[in-house]
Design goal:
This protein is an alpha+beta fold and 153 residues long. Helix content is 18%, strand content 50%. Strands 1, 2, 3, 4, 5, 6 and 7 form a 7-stranded antiparallel sheet that branches. The N terminus is likely disordered.
């Protein structure tokens, strides 16, 4: 019976650990970014807009905001960027990664005339996400319009 030398066994173990580290290393960046700010994390640098929608205020019969679905290939994350163009109202928007992305949810709001964004959700590649938005009157807290749930993969 032939046995491996101690050096050969050590080399095999180290090579195996290297493979495990490479596999784990590919999943870690996206998971580490979940719920973080896309700007401060650096994920916004390579991001692009996947889709965008106007948010309609049914009380006043006009579009009063915009919601964009953003994606960072480097981080494997999505988030929503929302803009409000009406003083006294806010655009509240959120995103949910569907089960393949872990089902995590993040949201945010743009007040008065401003732009804001949600935290990120883990959504590598073609993971499906739901995007939703509402227009809310800052004074009465009443919902005046909404964007029906939009699913993108």
């Amino acid at each position: 019976m032939k046995t491996k030398s101690k050096g050969a066994r050590t080399g095999t173990v180290l090579a195996s650990l290297g493979v495990v580290a490479m596999v784990l290393g590919t999943a870690a960046p996206a998971q580490a970014e979940v719920f973080r700010d896309p700007l401060s994390s650096g994920c916004a640098r390579d991001a692009y807009t996947v889709d965008a929608w106007g948010v309609y205020n049914s009380k006043y019969g006009q579009y009063q905001g915009t919601v964009e679905l953003r994606y960072s290939p480097k981080c494997g994350t999505n988030w929503v960027r929302m803009s409000s163009n009406t003083p006294g109202n806010r655009v509240y928007a959120g995103i949910q990664a569907l089960p393949a992305g872990g089902g995590n949810t993040a949201d945010g709001a743009a007040y008065d005339v401003s732009t804001s964004w949600s935290g990120m959700v883990n959504a590598p590649g073609s993971t499906c996400v739901n995007v939703y938005a509402y227009i809310v009157d800052n004074k009465t807290q009443q919902t005046e319009g909404k964007l029906p749930i939009q699913t993108r993969c």
